[in-house]
Structures are given as structure tokens and as C-alpha cells.
Amino acid sequence: MAIEARNVTKRFGEFVAVDDVSIFVESGSLTALLGPSGSGKSTLLRVIAGLEVADAGDVFISGKEATALAPQKRGVGFVFQHYAPFTHMTVWDNVAFGLSIRRRPKNEIRARVAELLELVQLTGLGGRYPAQLSGGQRQRMALARALAPEPEVLLLDEPFGALDARVRKELREWLLRLHDEMHVTTIFVTHDQEEALELADSIVVMNEGRVEQVAPPRQLYDEPANAFVMSFVGPVNRIGNTWVRPHDVELRLEPNGSTHEAQVERIVRLGFETRVDLVRDDGQQLHAQLTRDEVEVLELARGDIVYVRTKRAKSFA
Amino acid sequence: MVKGAHGGWQHFWQVAWNPESRAALELTLGLAGAIVAINAVSGTALAWTLVRDDFPGKRFVNTLIDLPFALPTIVAGLTLLALYGPTGGVGVDVAYTRWGVLMALMFVTLPFVVRTVQPVLIELDREMEEAAASLGAERLTIFRRVVFPHLLPALLSGVALAFARAVGEFGAVILISGNLPFKTEVASVYVFQRINSGDTSGAAALAVLLLAISLGVLLAIGALRRWATRHDR
Amino acid sequence: MTVSRRTRYGIRVFSLGYLALILVAPVGLIFWRSFDHGWHPFWAAVSNHDAVHALKLTVEVTAIVVPLNTAFGILCALAIVRHRIPGMGLVNAIVDLPMALSPVVVGLSLYLLYARDGWFGSWLLGHGVRILFALPAILLATAFVSLPFVVREVVPVLREIGIEQEEAAATLGSSAFTTFRRVTLPAIRWAVAYGVVLTTARSLGEFGAVSIVSGGIAGRTQTLTQYVQASYENFSLTGAYAASVELAMLAIATLLVMTMLKPRRGGHIGNRGA
Questions:
Q1: Is the N or C terminus of chain C more exposed, i.e. has fewer CB atoms within 10 Å?
Q2: Cβ of residue B193 closer than 8 Å to a chain C Cβ
Q3: pLDDT level of residue A255 (50, 70, 90 thresholds)
Q4: Is the CB of residue C183 less than 8 Å away from at least one CB of chain A?
Q5: What is the pLDDT of residue B11?
Q6: Chain C closest-CA separation from residue A88 CA (Å)
Q7: Considering chain C, what is the average pLDDT of its residues?
Q8: What does pTM read for this prediction?
Q9: Torsional class of A150: left (φ above 0), alpha (ψ -120 to 50), beta (otherwise)
Q10: For residue B144, is it within any domain?
């Protein structure tokens, strides 16, 4: 159930959405395609699904060439950002759709749909119409629908993008649990780096149609391949040609040889962590990230003079 | 539907431009112009009443507006003739007059402006008007500068459709007008008479003009739609 | 904006008065005239041989034209919205043409094509195929004038529901035909229904084009609308009024179905011009 894209290129008129991209997705893994809008991640996903035809390159699913296959024949389950529910069918019929067109026996369908509805916690709502469901429920229905015909591969296109923050968090956890149970090779597209870091075994970072880096979350965060990846995957301070994470900016009340003097401009308390905006004596603006306790101990206030030092600064060629 | 003009351009113009056909075309265009003016006012008023006003039977009236779409044109003409003709008993007789033709056209074009303006009025955000009022605008000013500009594209679409319909109308007109050449004979009836007399080139000549007018109106409506949605792009 | 009560009443009186004078009174009078001496004169007038035949012919024509135009309309709408074929703009314009075109122009075009000295006429008549002044011409004329309705109703709905449901069905393994049958068609069914109603009304009421190509022989090639005109011109007022009432009743039934379907047709209410 591994997926491979080899040298895939896709253009829309003059615009090159995907530019000679090659990726390999391990069987059974949960992979994220991460990048800003227009980076080509959704297009790449759709090429893998067969919803778009690549201008160049090949797609392999489970080792077999799928490039020329219609989406019907690829054995992929696809979940859309706006769910694409069959609005005129009940939840039950939506989930049953993939099975009913394969003409499975009625009792088999009934059992499987019931099983799936329970899995996605929509039992009892089978008789409702999608319009009567909340966004989160609709997306769970879409997932159940995609899983019903037992696809080899599950593709999700910004599945939680249209949901509000709390529902998003719940569904994220939920997708993780689902994947742990079912082990279907899954690729999801997102522009939210937190989501990618939280869920994925491996992250493919894309920008302007090209792959910037492929790595597991920890490695991506600690060893970014270039400035783009570093600044996309987490907050950064740019100091000349080096890049420093806010939590690598140390604050002291006393100078210490290697520190610069800086003035506190602003203190923003974001729950458990606090961001301190500083201006160094050479005019460089810095964001530092401290825990609440650290801030309390230092008794920081606006206008204070402190001494800063950075560690783990990265520079790229 | 390709039209044949027999015998080349010169012959075409000779045939097309005889006094009778010219009179028919002038009458047709004149009446269509009057229809535009009448419908602009009555259509907007009807749309206003249906959207902003409330009275018992409003839903019934709303349904009634579509009657000219559903009723055969010949029947429409006959009903007007029955009431406003010699046997009507209401003291008017517009049979064989231009007024009669005009009334027939008013009947068949009634729904157009109403139905294009209505949805715009429904969707019109009352808050815009309220904002204008809070800024000190008088009611007439609010209508003129806030409401009307939004209605204008829909209004123009509606009158364009009404115009095209009025230019081509045949069934509603044929009984009530009496088809007197130079008096009440409209272009569509002229074409019909020419065919009946076997003069297909004469018929084709004027028909081509009518076709050109229809195409022109279609293009105008398309352009209007693009202009109207320019703010949404 | 709130207008004064006086203005509101004024507009109301004006608009409703206009409606009453132009629409309601004339149509009401026909019903009155037909029935003010009871049911019998009306019944006698509509059950004479020619009237019955005219009704049958009109209904027959409608029964053939409507399914054809519905099928064509759905296919055309799919082609326009879902496929970017070059020349679609032209197809779009051609489909809209009957809306703005005078029926006599339509009739004349058919006449020029199929008359004895017409483009196709000579060949067809030589092979024994009679188009003009017979049923085929009536069918062609009626089909052309009622062509746009289903297309115009379905296109905005197709645009609005977007392509995602169909893509979802494809990823679930549904063939193009199954997707059409189980996903697309149900989504557009109210728009199609509304379009069918409009097409039916237009077919029943067609007069101008048919007058030119049909010949109007009573009892043979005369539609009900032509019967109304013929009756009037033969001074048979009762006959004309009675047939008009028949047509008006069909129109009112159409109107009621239209009103029921209107809110359901989906998409946005858009341009309801003709």
C-alpha cells in the first residue's frame, strides 16, 4: 500500500502547480503534505487520487502503475475539505454508497455501515441528512464513506480546514486514533504546521510546486533544510543570515560577556507560554518565548532592560 | 437557422425597404419603446409591492405574475379583445387600433421586469439603506443613490427582454390589431402576410432585421450581466 | 427604507390596478362568458370533432416534444457546465436564441428549409418525406421554441452544486453513468421539473411558428391555438372562447405546479426573464 510519485509535473495554463515532484510514502504511514496556499500540495494529492491528470511523471500505488487509471480504479478513499456530501441522500446512504455500487449483499452493507457509523461515533444519525449535521459530524461521515469500500489508501485534502478550532483539535486526535486502529496508508494535506507536527509520521514540506524537505516531525523542526522550512514549521527570529527559535533566546537580568543589551517592548501572555518582544541595542527585533514561571521569576515589565543571548542559531547556504 | 436572402444584397434592400415594411418596422419599434417605458415603471412598482408591501392575497398575486408565461398568446389577445373590444361592454373599443396592440404587448411582457427586479429587491441589504438614513439622507435620496443603482442592471435586463419580446410578438397581436397596413400592422404580422402571399424574399428581408434585433438584445443582456457583476469580481 | 403609508398605498393601488386591468379582468371575462349560461354551451363547443382533434394534436405534440427537450436540455447543461469544449459560448448563445426570437422568424426559417424549393425540402419531398404542413413541421417548430427552458434552469444549479460530489463518487468507484444517475440527476431534479413545466406550457401555447408551418387544416393539422384563431375568424365566438378556456385551464394548472416547484429548484433564483 505504499505510494510513489515520480517526477510529477502539473500545469494549469501558464501556472506550474507541481514542478517535477518525487515522493515516496511508506505503506501504513500517516504522511502530511505541508505548505502555504499555492504550494501545489492539493494538486499533488489530486494527481495521486486521479482527479487530476499529470502533464508528466508517474504515480505508483502498491507498486503498480496507476498513472493512467481513472479514480474509480485506484482504490483510493478521498475526503474533501468541504466534505462533498451527497446532499440528497441520508447519512446511511452516503456511507453505503461505495458498497452499494459494488453490489454487495444487503446484509453485508448493513453490517459494515453500522460498524463504520459506530467507529466515527455517528450511530443513530443514519437517518439524518447531511444538512442536519454539524461540520464535524459531516466530516466524520465523509471519512466513514471513504473508508467503507476498504481503500488501500486514504487521502484527505485539508480535512479540518473548514471547522472551528476546538472541533479541529478533537478531529485531529480522532484521526490519529483511527489510523492507529486501521493502519491504512494515509496522506493528508494541510497548511497548519501544528497539525502536521502533531499527526504525521513523516512530513513533506512543499513550496511553489517543489518539495523543500521530507522528514519526521522532530527532524523537520530541529534540522530544517533551509530557511523556508524553518520559518514555516515554527516561529523564527531572523538575525542577519542566521535564524533562531524564540525558545532559544535566553534572557538574563545581568550581562554576561556574550549577551547583548535589549529592552522589553511588549509582553504577551498566551496561556502557559509567554512571548516577550524585545529590541536589541543594535536595533534588532527579537521574540523570545518563555514559560510563565520564567517570566514571573524575572519579574519582567515593559521597558525593562535585559540581556539576551541566542543558542542553536542556524544559517543556511 | 440560416436565412436565405434571394438575389443578392441590392435586391434584398429593394425588397426590404418598401413603404409597407418600413411602416410595420417603425410601428413595431415605436411600440416596443413604449413597452420599455411602461414596464420600467409598472414592473418596478409591482416588484416593490410584492417585496416590500404586505396585504392579504399577496402570494396569490405573486403567482398571477407568471400567468403571461403560461398562457398561450392567442388566448391572451382574445381575452383583451373580449373585454376592451366592441363586445366588451366597458365603453372602450381598442380593436383595430394601436392602443389595442399596445395593450396586447403590455399583457405578454408584464412578468419580465417584475421577475428580474424582484430577487434583487429581496436580497437588497436593508442595512445599506439604514446606514444612509443615519447619515442624514432623505428617503428620495436613499432611493436614488442607494437602492436604484442596485436595481438598475436588473431593470435593464428586464426591459431588454421585454423589448425583444415586444418586437417579436405575434399571437397576442394578430386578433386585436386587425393587421391594417400602415396603421396597426406590426413587423411579425407583415412577415406572416408575406409568406402567405408567397413572397418569401419579402418576408425573409424583414425577418432578418428582426433576427438582428434579437441577437443584438441577447448580446446586450449578456454584456449587462457582466457589467452588473463587475463589483463581485 | 420605510416609505410613508401614503406612498406605499399609492404604489400598491397602482401596481395592483395595473395587474387587474391588463391581466385579471380580461382572463376573468373569458371564463365568465364561457360559463354564464351554464356548463352545456361550453361542453358542446369543446366536444365538436374539430375541437377535440385540435386538443388531441396539441397534447400529442407536447407529449413528444417535452421528453425530447428534457433529455437534450440535461445533456446540454452538462456539456456547458462540466466540459470545456471549444465553441461552448456559441452553443450557449444558440440555446438562448429562442428566448429572444420572434416565432414568425422561427416559422419562416423552417419554411425556407423545408418548402418545395427550400434547402432540404426538395431532397426530402423527392424521397416522399413530408415535413411542412404536416406533423413533423409542427414538432420541429414547437421543439425549437421550447428548447431553452430545461437548459436554463439546470445550468445554474449544476454550477452551484459544483463538481465535488461527482469527484467523491468517482473516488468511491462509481462509473460515469452511475454517478450521473445517483448523484447528479437527483441533485438537479427540481430544476429539471421546473424546466419541464415551462417547456410544457410553451409547447401547449405555441402559435406563431406553428401558424406558418402547419397549414392549419381543421381536423388534421390544426392545433388548439390555431383552432382559437380559426373559430374567431369564422365568427364562432363561443367556440373560440371555449377553446381559450381549455387552454387557460391548462395554463392555470401549469402555473400552480410552477408555484409549487419554484422554491425547490435550487441554485439561486437568478434571472427569471422568460
A1: N
A2: no
A3: confident
A4: yes
A5: 63
A6: 7
A7: 87
A8: 0.80
A9: left
A10: no
Residue numbers in chain B where pLDDT is lower than 50: 1-7, 233
- Dihedral Cα C181, C182, C183, C184, nearest 10 deg: 20
B37 vs B41: CA distance, rounded Å = 7
Task: Read off the DSSP letter of residue B230.
Answer: G
Asked, for residue B86, whether it belongs to a domain, the answer is yes
**C32 lies within 8 A of chain B by CB:** no
User: Which residues have C-beta within 8 Å of that of residue C208, sequence separation ≥ 6?
Assistant: B73, B170, B171, B188, B192, C102, C103, C104, C106, C107
We report the CATH number of the domain holding residue B210 as 1.10.3720.10
Provide the b/e sequence for B61-86 (b: ≥16 CB within 10 Å): bbbbbbbbbbbbbbbbbbbbbbbbbe
Q: 10 Å Cβ neighbour count for A262?
A: 24
> How many domains does chain B divide into?
1
B75 found inside a domain: yes
The CATH class that applies to domain C38-271 reads mainly alpha
User: Is B37 a member of any domain?
Assistant: yes
Complete DSSP assignment for B113-167: HHHHHHHHHHHS-HHHHHHHHHTT--HHHHIIIIIHHHHHHHHHHHHHHHHHHHH
Report the pLDDT averaged over residues A61-73.
89
Can you give the residue ranges of every domain in chain C?
1-36, 38-271
- What are φ and ψ of residue A214, in 5° steps? -125, 120
For residue C267, pLDDT over 70 is answered with no
Residue B1 has a pLDDT of 39
Closest chain C residue to B121 measured between Cα atoms? C1
The pLDDT tens digits for A213-254 are 999 999 999 999 999 999 999 899 998 889 999 999 998 888
Residue C245 to residue C252: CA distance in whole angstroms: 10
Q: Grade residue C150 by pLDDT with cuts at 50, 70 and 90.
A: very high
